[in-house]
Structure formats: C-alpha cells, structure tokens
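Deliverable D5.2: sample structural annotation.
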Amino acid sequence: MTGYLAFLKKEVIEYIRTYKLFIMLIVFAVFGITNPLMAKLMPEILESLATDGVIITFPEPTAYDAWTQFFKNATQIGLVVIVILFSGILSSELSKGTLINLLTKGLSRTAVILSKFTCMVMAWTVSIALCFGLTYGYTMYLFPEDQTSNLLFSVLCLWLFGLFLLAALLFSASLTKSNYGCLLITGVVVLVCMLMNIIPALHKYNPISLSTDNIGLIVNSIDVTSLYSVILISCLLSLIFVSLSVLIFRKKQL
C-alpha cells in the first residue's frame, strides 16, 4: 500500500508538470462553456448564412440541444484527447528507464499498474465533472424553464464508458512498448464494440451503448433499466482489463 500511494503521488505530480492535467481541464472547460452557447446561437448562425430570397427557420433551441452538444463533444473529442494523452502511460517511462529503476528498488509491479489506472480515472473524473458543472450552470442560465430527465444517470453512464476505455487503454499499454501500438489495440477494442452495435440483440450488452444512449435517456425515449445489464458488463470488463494488465506487466520483460 505504501508503494501504491507513493507512486500515485508521483503520477499526480507528473500529470501537473507535463501539463497533461492542464490540457484536459482546458479542453473540457471549453466544452463546458461552449456547449450551451452553441445550442443557443447555432440557429441564428445558420439563418445568417442563408442566401438572399431563401428563408430558413429552425426550432427554438432548448436545454436538450445543449446536452446534445455536451455528450457529442465529450464522447467524440474529449475521450479521444484523453486516449491520446494517456497512450504513453507505460511506454514513455520504460523508454526513459525511470520505471525500471523504481522496480529494481522494490516497487511492486502491481502498485505501478493500479496507481496509473487510479490516476487516469481521477483525471477523467475531474475533467468530466468540470465540463458537466459548467454546462449545467450555463444551461440553467440560458434555458431556465427547460427540464431534462435522467441527466445524472446519463452522465454516470458516460463516465463508466470512460472507465472502460481507460481500462482497455491500460491493457493495450501492457501488451506493447510503443504509443502507436497502444493506440492501435485500443482502437481495435472500440471498433469491435462499434461492430457489435450493428446487431440490435447485442446493443443492451455492449459497453459502447453507455456513450450512445445518453440523449435517449434525457428525452425519456430509453428506459433507465435497459442499461443495467450493460453497466454491470462494462464494470466487469474494466475489472478484467485491469487484472490482465497486472498479470501481463508482472511477466513482462522490461
């Protein structure tokens, strides 16, 4: 436990010194501010682009449009930024030899994997919480009369998918010694989930459903209970990925 906490502290300090945490917070803060603003201004922007003699009308923007922007940006851009930033979670230290020095001095390999996963989860949690808080505040200001359903549960689902993706990323990093290999394996995992989603019968068991059913949840077109199975499966898969990462890294020739 001492080694775990010490290495976790070292990881947090490194995230700050290398500006990883700063980049993540800036990206998600920008999304949090612009999500409701884009929802509010987009109809006016599109109408201003209409050619002479052509009248284009758009429905009045609502809070649903702001949360649509939130889930789209967090999923399509935010998670991609996180995966890219964390793709060198193991390879960068192995290439520099800093991790090898710590391991030879008695640091447990299990502590390394668990502390790295914990730090990634902490960074992801703070980032998505910041984005949610800013979006919520500006949405309440711009659309005070609009109410959304299952909002917190929908954000929780997105957060859980982020955990699943980070676990898959850590597993990928344990298999390869390069950033590109890590990105490739993680991309294959996501691609398999996307292909599985083509089959309707597998949708309620597919982790990617946690990042695609968010809008359906807040407009009440998707029942909350329909995601209970995929939440359980995603948590189990995340646990399996982390456990495999520990086992592989223990036997890995550095």
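Annotation notes: The two ends are 23 Å apart (CA to CA). The mean pLDDT is 86.
The annotation will be released with the project's public dataset once the embargo ends.
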